[in-house]
Amino acid sequence: MAPEKDTGGRQKLKQTQKLTAHQVQLMNMVMMPVTDLSQRIKREIEENPALEEGKDYGEEDGAEELYGASGDDGAGDLSEKDMVLGAYSDPDEIPDTTLKQYGRGRINPGDIPFSEEPSLQDYLLSQLGLTTLDEGEQETAKFLIGSLDDDGYLRRPLTGLLDDLAIYRGVYLTEEELSKILGVLKTLDPPGVFARGLRECLLLQLDRRPGTETTFLAKRLLSDRYFEAFTMRHYAKLAQSLKVSDEELRAAVSVVTGLNPSPGRDYGNKLVETLQVVIPDFEVHEVDGELQVTLYRGDIPEVRLNRDFRDNMSEYLEAGKKRTPEQKETGRFVKSKIYQAKNFVQMLKLRENALMSTMMTIVDLQREYFLTGELQNLKPMILKDIADRTGFDISTISRVTSSKYVATDFGTFPLKHFFTDGTLTRDGEEVSTHHVRELITEIVDGEDKQKPLSDETIKSELKRRGFDVARRTIAKYRDQLGIPVARMRKEV
């Protein structure tokens, strides 16, 4: 409790909570994914001689006496209570993760494929020698290549590029000279690189295609006059204005939509995204009608206190006899390292307990879903439901579920996938909003693309199936699913 003055100048008591460094360290460890935790443990073993790899043998042979030393920082032992103390940061600040599914079963980090595919910049640099640019122009070209964004676009204004060339490279060019170099670079592969925006990127790709009537019509769709109507999918209006048949327009639209809006993503950056394979923290599998939950360890080493270190240092820890200043200093060092080792092992146990308690509770609440994999069996569940059953604070549950994944018989999912609000059916049954989203996707997939359904029509269809959902809620779910509005889903 800390005194605080109110607006009237009177003192009042305000309850505050300050976490120790060890508690903050524990919370950070709870949030660590498998790969990060493995590196953390290996680093701790390297830096602390009182730790070693191996199964923990517990406190024995006088270890309790050694552990009683709290080191020089004065921090107390960790306990279960440390896990349920209030957050040191707002749970809303924890970023969500994006689900990337892959097959069921264990993932061995050593099985992740490795590729030596060059980056976009490497590929462009390899083509410079084939251009008409002289040595000085090639140096400027290398600067422009380094200025591309991940999509392969050169979005910065030419004036800004000219300033940077003058300041950092000592190269002074006119805008016309820079545009000439840029024009040569736009002829490099992949088609569309160095464009200033989407429309130019698509037009650069069309310039490489045979000059057929369909290609010419596709270029007209991207012109200033027709581009807005094209993006709004006003196909009937376009066919009338361009004086073409629906079939001719459909062929041109197919050409444009088949172009690559992000040519840079096909190289190094796309490779990085592809190799972001999720390593699950848990595995949940059905065996003879029962669900088995395991904490996936991967290459996480088991860690314990090093008894050899303690035994070899015992002379510096003995009390009741005179010791030299050097021995006293060594004794303090040894006590500190043993204390740190003990707390590190204890934090690992608390982490494992928090993770397993949380996962077991999720499986218990969502048993039908883990047995069937059907979204309609996913029950509404919030963080408080888990916190009430485990005894942990909501912020702790938020940390446990943040960036954690579980491998199931039906794919691998982030734990956030299992937390959802509910909605009532016509019969008063509460169902997960995941199921409602699935139904919206099903309805949109089955619609006539020449007459796509409005949100109001989707609302009516859901109501017919027993789900009374507001139109604005449908619009929100549709946006979350990445489904455009009706007019943007219209096809020729």
What do these coordinates show?
The protein has 492 residues and is of the alpha+beta class. Helices cover 47% and strands 8% of the residues. It is built from 23 helices and 10 strands. The protein has helices at 21-31, 34-47, 63-67, 80-83, 120-125, 135-146, 158-169, 175-185, 198-207, 213-221, 227-231, 235-242, 246-257, 268-274, 307-312, 314-317, 325-365, 367-372, 383-390, 394-401, 433-445, 455-464, 471-480; strands spanning 2-5, 11-14, 51-53, 282-287, 290-295, 303-305, 405-408, 411-414, 422-424, 430-432. Strands 5-4-7-8 form a 4-stranded mixed β-sheet. A hairpin with a 2-residue loop joins strand 7 and strand 8 (411-414). Helix 6 crosses helix 8, helix 19 crosses helix 20 and helix 22 packs across helix 23. The longest helix is centred in the last third of the chain and has 41 residues, at 325-365. The radius of gyration is 31 Å and the shape is flat. The model is unreliable at 14-18, 59-116 and 269-276 (pLDDT under 50).
Determine the fraction of residues in helical runs and give it as a percent range: 40-55%
Number of DSSP strand runs: 10
Shape: flat
Distance between the termini: 69 Å
List keywords for this structure.
10 strands, 8% strand, four-stranded mixed sheet, 23 helices, flat, 492 residues, two-stranded antiparallel ribbon, alpha+beta
